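Quick one, T. Sequence first:
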Amino acid sequence: MTPRLICLLGAECTGKTSLSQALAAALPAVWVPEYLRLFCDQQSRTPYPEEQSHIAAQQQVFETAALAQARAQGLDWVVCDTAPLLTAVYSEYVFGDKSLYPMARIAQQRYALTLFLQPDFAWQADGMQRDGEHARTAVHDLLEREMARHTGPWRALTGNPAQRLSQTLQILKT
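C-alpha cells:
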C-alpha cells in the first residue's frame, strides 16, 4: 500500500507542530517538519520574498522523502507539519505576492486529509517566525478563503491539543 499524506494547516500558534508530532507518534507515521522553521534557524532570519518559492519547493522535497521512508518502513501515513499552501498564504500576507498559489493549490491536492487548525487558544511567542495575534488572525482569514475553494478532504479542528488529537484519530477511523 502507498502511504498517504496528512497535512496540518493553520496560522502561527495554532499547534501544528505539537499536533503533527503527537499524531505521527500515535498512528505511527513518518513526521515531516516545517522547512520554514529549519530555514529560519539555519539563516537566523526570516526569508526574503525571492526565497519563498524555494521554501515551498523544499517542503515538497521533505514530503517526498518521507513518503519513501514510510513505504520502506511499511507505514500507512506521513504527517506533514505544514504545506506549500501556507507558504503561499504568508507570501501574500507578508509580501503581497500571490504568485505561489497555482503551485500550492496543485500540491494541496496530494493530501489524503488536510487538518485546518483553528486559532482558538491563546497566542504565544515562539521564535522569530511569530508575528503576533493580528498576523494570526489575518493569516487565518486567508487560509479560510483557500480552504473554501479546496476540493480535497479537509476538516477544521478546535479545542485543546488532546481534543484535537482525539478528533483526528476519530476522523481517520471513519
